[in-house]
Amino acid sequence: MCDLTSCQNVVDVGSGQGHLTRFLSLGLGLSVTGVEANPALLSMATKLDRELRSVALKERARAGAKTGVAPDGPCDPLPRHVAGWVNPWASWEEFVTLLQQPMGISDSRDGPPESHGTNSQEGFVLTGLHACGDLSATLLRHFARCPQAVAITSVACCYMKLTTLSNPAPPGLQAPPLPRPGGGDCAEGAGPVFGYPMSSWVQGLPGHELSCKAREAACHALESYTERLRGGSGELQSHCYRAVLETLVRRAQPSLKRAGIQTIKKAHLLSFAEYARLGLQRLELPTDWPLDWVPSLEALLAQQGRVVAYFCLVLLLAPAVESLVLLDRMLYLSQEGLDCELLPLFSPSLSPRNLVLVAVKAQQTNGASRTALGRPSSLPGSGSGSPR
User: Fold this and answer.
1) Which of 14, 37, 159, 300 is the most buried (most CB within 10 A)?
2) Cα–Cα distance between 159 and 197 in angstroms, integer?
């Protein structure tokens, strides 16, 4: 995308430990700014940057010693890291202001950090690799409205954390660290902003609503689950554990119809009593419930085969749910007059979220408006590509 747009500046939002920013900066020589809200991840990214830079300098010196030729030019500068939370209710101007903040992490023992980041006054390519929940939708809105953003690559994640009209506060939603701008739902005064749906067409589509459970199912990959089924993986037991615990919780507290027990790592290695204790803890419920004394517990645990069969049926619908979410985003970009495509970036066996939504803004060439994707710019509604 940088080559297509002749832009060497990249803004990576939700950069985490900085793996992508390091590759783009030290590997490809791009000017990169990473934005991350978690201070621990930001600190780790800076630490890993310096470690990799140290290794690169040693390799250059070693290579120069063997050949007798001094390295030509300095190493590519490190990426720049900014501490910040991208507010879904804020304007694109506030987003650009965030990019102008100084480095979020510095260490005086190493002197001033040698890094170069994106100049927010220049054009930049916006990217979000596995941007969680509303973050991916927010980046698309900022891209559509921000003049400096020339292109975007978006790989979404955690659809169950998307806000909707019927579920504005789904489980796991990160609350804003500061009051919303102006105290309203939207900085632009246009009413509430939700992660789904984004396009006016889907908003007017009867039955477009997606439950949190449906969106959660869309986060799974058929490919990896098929391997589990073929191998008879013990990890399948975790489905039954979750179903049984949710059943018991509903019996005890009918108001918790959708308990939403989050994933517990290595659940298949635990006894049900251990799993239940961890699950109840995450639900902020008493962990001393005598679940082992429930008369029907063994009968419920014996239904693992039925639970797995049900989960298989759910996964068969997952691609349809994800397609609706992603096509809604393509329609949104199209109604904004932007050209876009949805492309499979890598194998879904490596990551369930393997589809990347790419979009560019039109460029003037010899008096004709063309997009960097190589096609004439079109009217809203006709520029969306199709999934491949």
Assistant:
1) 159
2) 12
Give the mean pLDDT of 379-386. 38
Three-state SS at 226: helix
Handedness of CA 178, 49, 122, 358 (dihedral sign): negative
Closest to 139 measured CA to CA, from 303, 325, 359: 359
**What is the mean predicted confidence (pLDDT) over 179-190?**
42
- Which residues, in sequence order, are CB contacts of 55 under 8 Å at separation 6+? none
Pairwise CA distance, residues 167 & 212, whole Å: 8
Q: Cα separation of 276 and 281, whole Å? A: 8
DSSP-derived secondary structure for 83-124 = E----TTS-HHHHHHHHTSPPS---GGG-S--B----TTS-E
Q: Which residues contact 213 (CB under 8 A, 6 or more apart)?
A: 160, 258
Q: How confident is the model at residue 72 (pLDDT cuts 50, 70, 90)?
A: low
**Beta pairing class for 355-360 and 339-344:** antiparallel
Q: Which residues contact 17 (CB under 8 A, 6 or more apart)?
A: 41, 44, 45, 48
How far out from the chain centre does Cα 170 lie? 16
Predicted TM-score (pTM) above 0.70: yes
Nearest to 381 by CA among 339, 334, 341, 324: 334
Say yes or no to pLDDT of 70 above 80: no
Q: What is the pLDDT of residues 199-214, one digit of tens each?
A: 999 999 999 999 988 9
Closest CA to 80 of 56, 106, 58: 106
**Contact by Cβ (8 Å): 352, 157:** no
Are 160 and 130 spatial neighbours (Cβ–Cβ below 8 Å)? no
